[in-house]
Design a protein that fits this description.
single chain; elongated; developmental protein; mRNA 3'-UTR binding; repeat; differentiation; Pumilio_RNA-bd_rpt
Length: about 170
């Protein structure tokens, strides 16, 4: 990792509130670019994980403009997954809504599928319900799909009894 990215990532983990605010201020306007870089995405993920909620909102606002392209990106998908894991329900709800609107596109993509898996694991039961409802419509296609099948497996692991039953029933009927 380049020295400057390593320094920023380490500094975010142990900076004072004033220093953290200054670091986030320096990231402003560069969040999307960094999210798509091999080392830069680590900085954005660390920021989402370690800054206070007010500063998280600044980062989320930039990320929200490009949720789907980031979800489909080799490095950007890691940033979206970090957001889903470390932000409050209220903060991540607009991002989740964008993801719900694009479940089929993301589920069949090599990187987007990881985001939907993460949503199934870290979202609310209602989020999983929406994923299950979409995928069960063509379940036989998705259980055989290289990427979408992993999402179905995650729903079977993390889902409620009703969600599991809906998936299994559709496979048996299919």
């Amino acid at each position: 990792m380049p020295l400057n990215m390593t320094f920023i990532e380490q500094k975010l983990g142990r900076a004072s509130p004033t220093e953290t605010a200054q670091l986030v201020d320096a990231l402003r306007g560069h969040v999307l670019t960094l999210s798509q870089q091999v080392y830069g995405n680590h900085v954005i993920r660390k920021a989402l994980e370690s800054v206070d909620k007010a500063l998280q909102i600044e980062l989320i606002n930039e990320i929200s403009a490009q949720v789907i392209p980031l979800s489909l990106h080799k490095y950007g998908n890691w940033v979206i997954r970090s957001l889903l894991e470390h932000c409050t329900e209220q903060q991540k709800r607009p991002v989740l809504e964008q993801l719900h609107d694009n479940v089929l596109t993301l589920a069949t993509d090599q990187y987007g599928s990881f985001v939907i898996e993460h949503m199934a694991e870290h979202g609310l039961p209602e989020d999983r319900n929406r994923i299950v409802h979409i995928l069960k419509g063509d379940i036989l296609k998705y259980v055989q799909h290289k990427f979408a099948s992993n999402i179905i497996e995650k729903c079977l692991i993390c889902g409620t009894a009703d969600q599991k039953k809906a998936l299994i029933d559709n496979v048996c009927v299919g």
